[in-house]
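[Q] Does anyone have a clean C-alpha cell version of this?
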Amino acid sequence: MRKHILSSVAFLLILAVLLAAASYVVLPKNNTKKAGMHTPQANGILGEPENTIDVLFLGNSESYCGFVPMEIWKEQGITSYVCGSSLQRLYQSEQYLRSAFRKQSPKVVILETLAVFTDYGRTEVLPDIAGEWIPILRYHDRWKSLRAEDWYEPVRYTHVRGDKGYHTFHEIKAADTTDYMKPTEETHRVPSKNIRHIQNMQEFCQEHGAQLVLVSIPSTTNWTQAEHNGIAAMAQSMGITYLDLNLMRDEVPIDWEVDTQDKGDHLNITGARKVSDFIGQWLAETGLFEDKRSWEAYSQWNQFLQEYLEDKEVDRSDFDK
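[A] Here you go.
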C-alpha cells in the first residue's frame, strides 16, 4: 500500500511539472492577438502602465459598444479601460476584475448589467476556471503557432491599445421602440449564482478602495422595465449605486433612428458618445478624480485622442451622406 501511494504521488508530481512546463510554453508572452492572447482588446489593460487607470468597465458586448474611454478622456481627463467581451458571464467579469487589479487601482468599477441575467452551467465554468490555473487547457491550440522564443521568453505584457477596449462601429440600422421600456410592476429575478458574483465583486472592490457601480446601457432589444425592477431591487438591498440609462432619456438622449448599429441591440459611435459623455460627467461629479490631460506622464493618451478624433470625423461624414 505504501509503495502504491508513493508511486501515485510521484506520478502526480511528474504530471504537475509537465503541465506547468507546457503551460509556460503556450502562455502568450505578450497581450496581443499575434502573440496568441485571447480577447486581446479586453486584455489590453494588462499592458497599461501601473496604476494609471481610474475607471474599469466590465460586461459583455453592450459594454465595449457603449463606453468610449477616449470620449471620457477628451471631456474629463479621466482614464478608463473597457474589459468587455462577447457573451461575458459574471464569473468572467470577476476574473477580469481581479486580473486588472494586479497592476491597476481604479477608484470606480462599472459593471454593465445585461450579463446579470445571463445564466450558465458548470460545463461552461469549470473549463474556464481550470484554464486560469492551467494555461495549457486554455491555450492548447497555440501548439500550431509556437515560435522558438516561446520556449524561453519571459511573459511581458507591453502592448498599449489606443482604443482602450472600445470597439468602434459606424453602421446605422434604426430600432423599433414600440414596446421599449413599457411600464410594468413585474420583476425579473436575478439568478442567485449571479448575485453571489456581484457580492464577490462588491467585497473585492471595497477591500481595494474602489466603488462598484451598476450601469444599464440603452438597448431596445435587451432591456425591459421588469429587468430594471430586478436590478434596482438587488442594488438597493446591496447598497450599490445603479444607473439605468434606458430611463434617463433627457440625460442620455439616444435617437433610435441613428444611434444604433443593429436595430437597437447595440449602440454605434454616436450613441456610445452620448453614453460616455454622461458617464464622464457623472464620474467627474464624484470628486474622486483629477484632470490628467496636461500631465506629461499621460501624453500618450493625448496622442491616442487625436487618432480617435480623426476616426470620429470620418464617422460624421458617413452620417452626412
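[Q] Thanks! Anything notable?
[A] Confidence is low (pLDDT under 50) at residues 314-321.
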